[in-house]
Design brief:
heterodimer, A: seven-stranded mixed beta sheet, four-stranded antiparallel beta sheet, B: about 120 residues, seven-stranded mixed beta sheet
């Protein structure tokens, strides 16, 4: 199975900060990567798919890049509602796998 | 509007079989490309994909759990059912169903654009 490693595992940042989260795949997955946001007690929400395509309704401060094995999620200017846990997911091969998550906290 | 809702027991005993139902609306699993997956999340831990069934009744399972899992669909009822045998306390988790759309030619896996609220299943005697 393809392993996804996210870094950092946790991150403290302030409102207005620019934040980058990385996701590294154990083998090449082309652009078959999605990013999700999850808040406590809630289901994950799709933010980006195909590595860089913004899901409808998601603010443009979220962006994604990368292909092959290295991917990034960037939030250009943190808003209060962005403090959550973020997961990457690969859909290049079965079994589908998720990263271990990055918890974004308020500094 | 796409909605999904998970239902099933909140508590199961070790060695029992868990049966979860995902009831959805806003799409049909008879439409080419549509699929539904089950994903779980132990308390405080990461997401883990379990199984997927698509419009063509193709089924895929987690490598580590495939001997214990079975996924099926009832297109007329807009439902997907997951069974997991031989439940253990480590299977305690929130279980989610989610919708995806597969490329009908490539048939690669997919991401999930709509999720149910999840149902917490506790395994304890």
């Amino acid at each position: 199975a393809i392993q996804l490693t996210q870094s950092p595992s946790s991150l403290s940042a302030s409102l207005g900060d620019r934040v980058t989260i990385t996701c590294r795949a154990s083998q090449g997955i082309s652009s078959a990567l999605a990013w999700y946001q999850q808040k406590p007690g809630k289901a994950p929400k799709l933010l980006l798919y195909d590595a860089s395509s913004l899901q409808s309704g998601v603010p443009s401060r979220f962006s994604g890049s990368g292909s092959g094995t290295d991917f990034t999620l960037t939030i250009s200017s943190l808003q209060p509602e962005d403090f959550a846990t973020y997961y990457c997911q690969q859909f290049n091969n079965f079994p589908i796998t998720f990263g271990q998550g990055t918890r974004l906290e308020i500094k | 509007q796409v909605t999904l809702r998970e239902s099933g027991p909140a508590l199961v005993k070790p060695t029992q079989t868990l049966t979860l139902t995902c009831t959805f609306s806003g799409f049909s699993l008879s439409t080419s490309g549509m699929c539904v997956s089950w994903i779980r999340q132990p308390p405080g831990k990461a997401l883990e994909w379990l199984a997927l069934i698509d419009w063509d009744d193709d089924k895929y399972y987690s490598t580590s759990l495939k001997t214990r899992l079975s996924i099926s669909k009832d297109t007329s009822k807009n439902q997907v059912v997951l069974t997991m045998t031989n439940m253990d306390p480590v299977d305690t988790a929130s279980y989610y169903c989610a919708r995806g759309a597969r490329d009908v030619w490539v048939r690669a896996p997919t991401n999930f654009d709509s999720w149910g609220q999840g149902t917490l299943v506790t395994v304890s005697s």
